[in-house]
Amino acid sequence: MRIINRKPGRLVSLALGLSPFVVLVIAYAVASHFRRLDNPADKLLPSLDKMGDAFWRMAFVPDRRSGDLLLWLDTYDSLWRLSLGMAVSTLLALSLGIAIGFIPHVRKSLAPFFATFSLIPPITILPILFIIFGLGEVSKIALIVVGTAPIMIRSTAQSVIDIPREMVIKAETLGASVWQMITRLVLPQVLPKLITAIRLGLVPAWIFLISAEAIASTSGLGYRIFLVRRYLAMDVILPYVVWITLLAFLLDRLLLALSKRAFSWHHLEGESL
Asked: Where in the chain do CATH 1.10.3720.10 domains reside?
């Protein structure tokens, strides 16, 4: 049997999936060990034990000044901003994407605008957002929306356009109104693809969130990383980076599980990444 037709079992799949991470951890441990042989006080590649102690301190030891558990406070604030920004982007993608994809007049009016707006680097708009909305929460959430909504709107609109024309004609023949076609034909076809758009949108959303928190914030994962960088506290920075990656991975897997459970028919054709 050719290798492209061989599918690994569950245990082999788990081992194959974990192996790159294990190799990465071992490579880091070795590099850290040899670097600290030359300079025991080296801060660039702290040992795994030191990073574990720092993570424990940030997660379970109250801060001396505020009494807060900093890791969980930062995580809550960042996830709240991320969730609110992505919720606004999702609502815009669902409403405007369906309108652009399903109604020709709206498509001719708004499609060129969002196609152009989506090409603007969102980070360049950040100073404008700070001027308009100030340095509070609104500007950070607005940056996430500006950075993710246009792409999600275009993706949703394209999903609507890709619906076979025959299905629309059959619905019209049966006397369905535009609203009925949207709710009974378009939405079931678009929702699983919208979840995929959200998963893809989370990648830039994290980037914009960390950038905004680093520039103007008093809490959040991005704020903490850029706060301790002045002390070269890599024992805090690296665990925070790993923690952000873990949170992003869990959110992605939860959305995939939701899609598979709610729209199992959409995943029958092949394996979902």
From this structure: 50-267
> What b/e string do you get for 214-242 counting C-beta neighbours within 10 Å, with b at 16 or more?
bbebebbbbbbbbbbeeeebbbbbbbbee
What CA–CA distance (Å, rounded) separates 41 from 14? Answer: 37
- In degrees rounded to 5, what are phi and psi of residue 174? -80, 0
Q: CB atoms < 10 A from the CB of 269, how many? A: 7
Name the residue among 112, 87, 49 with its Cα closest to residue 194: 87
Q: Are 197 and 93 in contact (CB under 8 A)?
A: yes
Q: Which listed CATH number (3.40.50.300, 1.10.1790.10, 1.10.230.10, 1.10.3720.10) goes with 50-267?
A: 1.10.3720.10
213 contacts 223 by C-beta, under 8 angstroms: yes
- 101-157 tens-digit pLDDT: 999 999 999 999 999 988 888 888 888 888 888 878 899 999 999 999 999 999 999
What are the CA-CA distances from residue 240 to residues 56, 79, 111, 174 (Å)?
Answer: 12, 14, 39, 56
- State the pTM of this model: 0.88
- Give the range among 3-12, 85-94, 101-110, 213-222 with minimum mean pLDDT: 3-12
